[in-house]
């Protein structure tokens, strides 16, 4: 086989990137830019992330089912974006909206919905090395199959195509016999099934985590940590509008975490990342509370004397800055004992060795200290220390090359 031939996975990635660039050229700077353009940016980024991940994994781990699933998810999102670009471009032309534009808009929403399902519970129960047959995994597959079937049925329900980025247009492929489903609570059914599938998938992964070895546990922790960020932001995005943008960006963490886990690149750094994240989240919460409390107290005590809030804010800021390092040390120590144990153990072993050998002059005791420290730090099956005697040393070689007398 010709080594210079472009392999299938990189070829698919290159084609997908070209499609995303062309679709973005149509959608984003369009004069009648559709509403919810942030969601379009998210779809482009999500498709780009999963397509890139899938291409890398299929190229390096072609036998892994997760590799093929990730690439399929990325290509599905890319296809949904392309269909949306076609629909928006066709609708912008003079005259009535073409039937093909309505079909493309409806199909785009359904394909993106199915890809979103696959990136959640479907991928989770198959991570990291394929499907794990169990009752929970089977229940997840059944719930997802029902949602996919409902998405297919949605394509043929008559009535206006439900999209926020196109003018209302009747579904040209609607089937009259399905007209009653237009008023049915199918959206609520989707939400219930999706929430149930996620809960079942988490239960299945938790059960597998308890039986897994250290490597699989680290892989699962990478994906769970990446999925926890957008999950924790969900309740907040309905209260604070600008957090939608943060949520969109946080979803890109999922393909990154999957790539790290499958390729096992710096796999066990996840404990350190989780530890640092928890540490600074707790520190931020404590300092924010201190800042607010200090402001309230200082305003009550010195508002009349200062006649301005500037000095009070400055004093509160200085107080928070002074408390940062003491609070960080207090918070970080217990968290490191849980998530960064290896680093603490190595520091303890090195400190103990330094104290034991600081004033040691006996060679036998020094040798025993080195061996015991090595055993404690590394945990080998056996350990020993060989010291060469003076009569075993090679003779000094002078510049001329002959041994010295």
What does this structure look like?
By secondary structure, the protein is an all-alpha fold. Helix content is 71%, strand content 0%. The protein contains 13 helices and no strands. Helix 10 packs antiparallel against helix 11 (310-339). The termini are far apart. The model is unreliable at 394-405 (pLDDT under 50).
Euclidean distance between termini CA atoms: 64 Å
The string of secondary-structure elements, in order, is HHHHHHHHHHHHH
Whole-number mean pLDDT:
77
Number of helices: 13
Could you list some keywords that capture this structure?
405 residues, disordered C terminus
Kindly summarize this structure in a few lines.
The protein is mainly α and 405 residues long. It has 13 helices and no strands. Helix 1 runs parallel beside helix 3, helix 2 packs parallel to helix 9 and helix 10 (269-306) packs antiparallel against helix 11 (310-339).
Draw up the topology in text:
Blueprint lengths: L7 H20 L9 H24 L4 H27 L7 H26 L10 H20 L31 H26 L2 H24 L5 H8 L2 H11 L5 H38 L3 H30 L1 H17 L5 H16 L27
